[in-house]
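Sat 14:20. Reprocessing the chain from the morning session after the first attempt stalled halfway. Input below, unchanged.
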Amino acid sequence: MSSNRLFISGIGTDVGKTVASAILVKAFQADYWKPVQAGDLENSDCIKVRNLTGLPEDHFHAESYRLPYPMSPHASAEKAGIEIDISNIIVPHHERKLIIEGAGGLMVPINRKYLYIDLIPQLNAEVILVSRHYLGSINHTLLSIEALVKRGISIKGILFNGNENKGTELIILERSGIPFLGRISETSEVNPEFIVSESRKIQFQ
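Finished this time. Tokens:
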């Protein structure tokens, strides 16, 4: 797996993948790519990360697929009459570290045949898993890690998003054995200043 490519996945939807991606892009002065954007095309995740980091345009790569409906990629594509071919999802040329943002969790369907977890080996990337504490998050986090391990997909580590929960985090880290990479602070407003502040806390390479 390429240590120069980091695939950002969550344990589910709305756990903070885009914020985590922005923090990592800023921390490493990295490139950013979201292979499939479903819905919100006028304010895509790429646009959000670009606005939050303030990095030049050449740090950001066009999506392989831009789908009009805010649904699972397979459903958005089918509704739009588009067929997603994962052989067309090709890692863009990059000389800097590349942050690749997924959609939802690992088992989100890209099309009727492939899930996001099937795409990751094709991208030759290590996974950073973003976890946020809620009732059921231990189960979702450990299942995500187990799925990656069973497929032999390299896991860089885990980022926890939000306030510390020692009991939850301890059991996840002990049971999984994967590295703890850091914590994203709880905030009421995600803005460029917040991204800068959080990026300074990143210690791993």
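The chain has a mean pLDDT of 97.
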